Amino acid sequence: MVCQEELLLVAKVCELYDQISSLESLKPCKDVNTLFTQLVLTCMPPPPTPNFDVSNLSTTVQETRSKLIRLCGEAEGHLETHFSTLLSSSYDNPLHHLTLFPYYSNYLKLSHLEYTILVQHLTNNKDPNKVAFVGSGPLPLTSIVLATKHLTRTSFHNYDIDPSANSLALDLVSTDPDLSTRMFFHTVDIMDVSDELRDYDVVFLAALVGMDKEEKVRVIDHLGKYMSPGALLMVRSAHGARAFLYPVVDPCDLRGFEVLSIYHPTDEVINSVVIAQIQAFNPLNHGNMIEELAIEDQLS
């Protein structure tokens, strides 16, 4: 049963979708920035609305949600491209000026959260040697923040299907004496990467790789086929109203993995975080063990 608050929220989201979809371009400008800011704030409502399930909404609203997620992905790409270009062209040391990106503080929090969850599941508390980030984009902030603040000796292999995105990302880190030796960029569709995936201790899957359920599951199945037994997969998902912004990954989507924990933020961090481990035996075992993590435990 959808309550009155949820009906109002859905109506507001649909209204914003109509306005966003009528824009001539989703490149950063006043109108685009204002509408997407309103959308994000609408999708981070106070309790009890965060717990509603978008899968219970009408088919029409579900279709609107799918289109909206793609528009969000397009706008996010334009925003990252804009700031990556700006940073590289304006500064000799672009990584010293990342705070210019309007959502940099969110990435700091999300990366800290992901690292906090990750270290609870690392073997012998040993930092991973090699990490892959799938869908790194033109402004690979997660890789940069993790590499500089948390995993300071780990090498990061960033995968993106878009050559221009990788070119911009490479420009950002090429002047940094440390990251230029530990950060690598691969222009390829991850579905075409196979045995190479066995080299990674941890694989991060960006929220917008696979923008609908079928695409997302196809990518996860592919990773499950080639990642090494015992390797960890960090998947970004969404919960409650935030599922209007990003795709949802359910535990049942992670076939061949044991789901170790799921975390749903309630602050300005948008993405939920799911960590799972490749199973050494019985890869189609669906008896996933899920631990819902408390905010206090993660952020203490």
UniProtKB/TrEMBL annotation:
PANTHER family (alphabetical): NICOTIANAMINE SYNTHASE 3 (PTHR32266:SF12)
Membership in a protein family: Belongs to the nicotianamine synthase (NAS)-like family.
Organism annotation: Xanthoceras sorbifolium
Keyword NAD: no
Catalysed reaction equations from the record: 3 S-adenosyl-L-methionine = nicotianamine + 3 S-methyl-5'-thioadenosine + 3 H(+)
Top-level taxon of the source organism: Eukaryota
Enzyme's top EC category: transferase
Key words of the record: S-adenosyl-L-methionine, Transferase
Enzyme Commission number, as recorded: 2.5.1.43
Function comment: Synthesizes nicotianamine, a polyamine which serves as a sensor for the physiological iron status within the plant, and/or might be involved in the transport of iron.
A Pfam family that the UniProt record links to this protein: NAS
Record's protein name: Nicotianamine synthase
